[in-house]
Design brief:
Elements lengths: L1 H13 L3 H6 L6 E6 L1 E2 L8 E2 L1 H13 L3 E2 L2 H8 L7 E7 L4 H13 L3 E5 L1 H4 L11 H6 L9 H9 L2 E5 L12 H19 L4 E3 L7 H9 L4 E4 L14 E2 L1 E2 L7 H5 L3 H7 L4 H13 L1
Parallel strand pairs: 1-5, 1-11, 2-3, 4-5, 5-6, 6-7, 8-9, 9-10
């Protein structure tokens, strides 16, 4: 079974042009990783301990991989050759992205992206929407948004600040008017405060071709997905798939997420059904 899967991966990879392969997050040219919180405690699968995150940065540095910013992303999308680059992205704008992540990025010389919700940034408000209500109650000190002052310091320190919409909805379920409001207004508010907003991360990784088209119409240059449950074989600048990183990603598991074959596995359409089957077996 493993040999059959490997042959399939090789065949798919070989027929991809360089630009598409890099944006698809399956090549050695570019790696797209998704983080949320870097803290000693926090929601499961959303939190990485500071010590672990620093080990990951050290491993990337050891491998000669550099941390990419917006200019590097533009080069990858244009098909420009260059050194291996990792794009570290942080969803939701946890306050630790400023307190903990920023100093570590400076120490190791990496750039990163952070996607925020402007209404929460206005007051450094709790990160609370229905899907994380229980976590927000359990971790009230951790689940807090950065403020605009923090965001300004992050930009000065090498972060690109992008949009994560206004209210963290499932975008594919919105009507056209509400969809445009979530995308347009959030981008406008970030650009007004920070000078620019070229990137977007779809909440929950939930998107569709119609959502991507709306993002393009609202002025975004790049947008990131987070495949969950189904695989994503294709990619364009407004549908770049990322691989989630969590507390389990130490040593070999993290290394797998940096290798083309490992990326194929983690982004495979078979991953979702496999995870659901594993959960059913554990419950049984």
């Amino acid at each position: 079974m493993i040999r059959i899967w490997a042959l399939y991966v090789d065949r798919v990879t070989l027929r991809l042009p360089p630009m598409e392969s890099a944006l698809r997050n399956r090549s050695g040219r570019a790696t797209f990783l998704c983080y949320h919180s870097v803290a000693a405690r926090g929601p499961r699968f959303l939190t990485v301990a500071p010590e672990l995150f620093e080990r990951q940065l050290a491993e990337l540095k050891r491998r000669g991989v550099r941390g990419g910013g917006l200019a590097d992303l533009q080069d990858v999308a244009a098909g420009t050759s260059g050194p291996p680059t990792v794009f570290l992205t942080f969803d939701d704008g946890f306050v630790d992205n400023h307190h903990t992540v920023l100093p570590l990025l400076r120490r190791y010389g990496f750039r990163a992206f952070c996607f925020v919700l402007p209404p929460l940034v206005d007051a450094g408000a709790p990160l609370a929407w229905p899907e994380v209500a229980e976590d927000a109650e359990r971790f009230p000190e951790e689940m807090v948004s950065v403020t605009w002052t923090m965001a300004e310091e992050m930009v000065a320190g090498g972060f690109e600040i992008g949009s994560h919409t206004l209210t963290h909805p499932h975008l594919s379920q919105l009507d056209p008017e509400r969809l445009r409001e979530e995308l347009w207004d959030s981008r406008a508010r970030i650009a007004e405060r920070l000078g620019a907003c070229d990137t977007l991360a779809y909440p929950f990784g939930d998107w569709s071709p119609a959502v991507a088209a709306a993002a393009r119409d609202c002025g975004y240059s790049f947008a990131f997905t987070l495949p969950t449950g189904v695989g994503q074989r294709d990619a364009e600048p407004l549908s770049i798939p990322r691989i989630n990183v969590d507390a389990r990603d130490d040593g070999r598991r993290f290394e797998m997420k940096l290798r083309p074959f490992g990326k194929q596995l983690f982004l495979s359409p078979a991953v979702g059904p496999l995870r659901r089957g594993t959960k059913r077996l554990r419950r049984a």
